[in-house]
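Let us work through a complete example step by step.
Step 1: write down the sequence.
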Amino acid sequence: LVSGNTGDAFQLNSSSGWLRVNAALNGSVQDQYGLNVSATDGGGRVTYVSVQVGVVHFGPPVFGQSSYAANVTENSAAGTPVALVTAQAQHDGSNQSLVYSLVSGGAGLFAINSSTGQVTVAGLLDRETAAQHVVVVMATDQGPLHKQSTVVLTVTVQDANDHAPQFTGLPYVASVREGADVGAVVLTVGADDSDVDLNAALTFRLVGGNEEGKFALNASSGALMLAGQLNGSVTEQYSLVVSVLDQNGAASTALSSNTTVNITVVHFGPPVFGQTAYQANLSEASSAGTLVAPLSATVQHDLANTSIHYSILQMWAISPPPAVDITTQSPAVFAIDPATGRLSLGLAGLDREAVAAYSVLVQGTDYGNPRKSSNVLVTVDVLDVNDNSPVFGQMAGYNASVREEAVVGQDVVQVTATDQDAGVNAAVQFGLVSGNTGDAFQLNSSS
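Step 2: predict the structure and record it as tokens.
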């Protein structure tokens, strides 16, 4: 062999001239050999001839598709079919079977039936860890050279609802002023879900702590809003239970999580009067407009307007008993300046002999939001003036007789008198004014 014997593929018997195969041939690599052969006689003369050798060969297995793609749901059980990958042997031998194997990809998550090419699940698939796997499948024929070919199988892992939504931004704590408008957003809750699509479509619900109906929750955005006017004096703290569900909360397979939202109502007390109760004394001779008592209250809120509005809620004549409501009496016994709280005598005037004491219930209202009020009781005692004369028990006069032998000091008759005034103004002193000729009689000034 002079030339053309690539890879020493052939051997030539120098005596017989037989050309034999000397090494394994691979027609897929080289399917034609051009050999240059020489023949030399005993005298040294040489002749050359060309020998063309064609290698009869067959290709490797051919897959039914240039690539394969399949979908499988995460958490599918071992043995779940994924894809059927098949090829055809190209040789002309009697054994046309193929042996299938996985070359790479999948990290033990898949298996293949070596005879059929059926790829199945072999491990735990988790879409959240890897949403796609590229698996290389090999087919080996049973021809004399066991030729092989490969194809790519792309497996997409589809989502299963295997993750409950989780709230973000915890803890949820907020404060809101009791005067906040209905519809105002207190805070917004949020959540994440590791799943996708419908399995990550979240809806929010308010499931506890809202017995008063003061709050509402936007199911889509998670915005927690005021649904009613707050009154911190009634309820100062709310603990609301909020739930988040995936699959829009519509499916029986929806997963959920709960959390607590703590809300403090920022509030202020009602006005505080300078005294818990007031007591005043007023002469019955006082004229309309006379000061009874200067009432004053202080706001407890932190707003700019610290004014107080004063008003009379109710009035009673309490002496003599029983108490009589005189609130609607006109003209009124008492009046109050709504801006200053000055309680004064009204146009009705006073008469101690008719009413000796009054009670007045006064209210002070602030200009906060919401407006708050507190009440205080004012007791007014009417002081007497000497405006009534004594009245004898017998204004028509007294008649008496006495025997002429009566001894000095003998009682003849007792005159009596009363005075509607009080105190010293009602202390009656008696005296003989006229007619006591010869000082015949003596009158006890007290009795």
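Step 3: interpret the result. The chain has a mean pLDDT of 95.
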